[in-house]
Write a structure and sequence with these properties.
Blueprint lengths: L2 E7 L3 H12 L3 E8 L6 H14 L7 E4 L14 H4 L24 H8 L4 E5 L4 H9 L1 H4 L4 E5 L15 H5 L1 H10 L3 E4 L1 H4 L3 E2 L1 H10 L5 H15 L6 E2 L1 H8 L6 E6 L1 E3 L10 E3 L13 E7 L1 H13 L4
Parallel strand pairs: 1-2, 1-4, 2-3, 4-5, 5-6, 6-12
Antiparallel strand pairs: 7-8, 9-12, 10-11
Helix pairs in contact: 1-12, 5-8, 10-11
Length: 315
């Protein structure tokens, strides 16, 4: 039976790769996507999700839900068109589609989806955590009945990608990240420690594109690769942070994990959004909550699974 997934996403390039992977995988059933701000403004994320749902003919199957527009910090969000393109989809300029007729604020649909799938729903959060944190504030008992929560976020003893120590999703709303990690149960964090090494090379992209199932992967990842090459000329391809997080829900044995307490710095400056794990073997945790954090993964497994799903050919 396919894993039922509710995706919270700020739909830029890497979220889109995760969506395509989920749509093509027989092991994943994406029943809903929450359109958040983050890589792009919320209205652009909604447009991008609508474009993808129509492109893959999933309009009758995947619920599209409006999420958060601004972070809990009260700040105006910062967007990164140099990373994801002016439209959020790299070289692709999606049509200026309007949402479905009558579409309006519908965040309570998250409650409906959880109630429809009690105890079997997996939440995957690949963007800022504002919407997910709102669920723990408003419906704590209900959302803790979901089966599991996977979060792409954090950087533990590796450089951040926004500041020297902070990863973008935690940095974008550290208050929300702190709330989620305080109240959520059965959380798995997939941080930059592993996602930075989930590389899709241009050769992989060209082969996937030649098979036609992934449709728009080349203009997405060509743009992404150009950005990453400017940042790091030695990089061999594009890291697919969010696709790896979705893959983790299916292939837990592909990763090595540690269960550790996690602290989020909500101060301003370079440490804003920093994720800190307590690795002291002698620490007295006094019953403090721990979360499962991925620190390594099998790159061959990643390659074989990603290529098999995206091409429809067993690798």
């Amino acid at each position: 039976m396919a894993k039922k997934v509710l995706l919270f996403a700020d739909v830029g390039i890497d979220d889109t790769i995760a969506l395509i992977y989920g749509y093509l995988s027989k092991q994943v059933d994406i029943i809903g996507v929450v359109a958040d701000y983050g890589n792009v403004p919320r209205v652009m994320g909604l447009r991008n999700i609508t474009y993808l749902v129509n492109l893959f003919n999933l309009s009758q199957h995947t619920k599209v839900i409006l999420g958060a527009e601004k972070p809990m910090t009260g700040e105006d969000p910062i967007f990164y068109p140099e990373v994801h393109g002016e439209s959020g989809l790299g070289y692709i300029k999606p049509p200026q589609q309007l949402p479905p007729q009558g579409f309006t604020e519908n965040f309570c649909e998250v409650v409906s989806l959880i109630n429809q799938h009690p105890g079997e729903l997996t939440i995957v959060n690949t963007g800022r955590l504002t919407s997910l944190a709102s669920m723990y504030i408003l419906y704590n008992d209900l959302i803790n009945k979901v089966k599991e929560v996977y979060i792409m976020g954090g950087a533990f003893w590796v450089p951040g990608n926004v500041t020297a120590v902070s990863e973008a999703n935690f940095h974008g709303d550290p208050i929300a990240a702190k709330i989620v990690l305080r109240y959520a149960n059965n959380v798995t964090i997939i941080p930059l420690n592993v996602t930075d090494r989930a590389i899709v090379t241009p050769q992989m992209v060209d082969y996937i594109q030649s098979k036609g199932k992934a449709k728009i992967i080349k203009p997405l990842l060509d743009f992404y690769y150009e950005f990453y090459k400017k940042r790091n000329p030695s990089i061999k391809g594009s890291p697919v942070h969010d696709a790896l997080t979705l893959m983790a829900t299916l292939h837990q044995n592909m990763f090595s994990f540690r269960h550790l307490p996690v602290y989020i710095n909500t101060d301003s400056g370079v440490t804003k959004g920093q994720s800190i794990a307590d690795i002291r073997p002698y620490a007295d945790l006094n019953g403090e909550k721990t979360h499962r954090i991925a620190f390594d993964f099998n790159s061959n497994w990643f390659y074989n699974d990603f290529m098999s799903v995206m091409t429809g050919e067993l690798m």
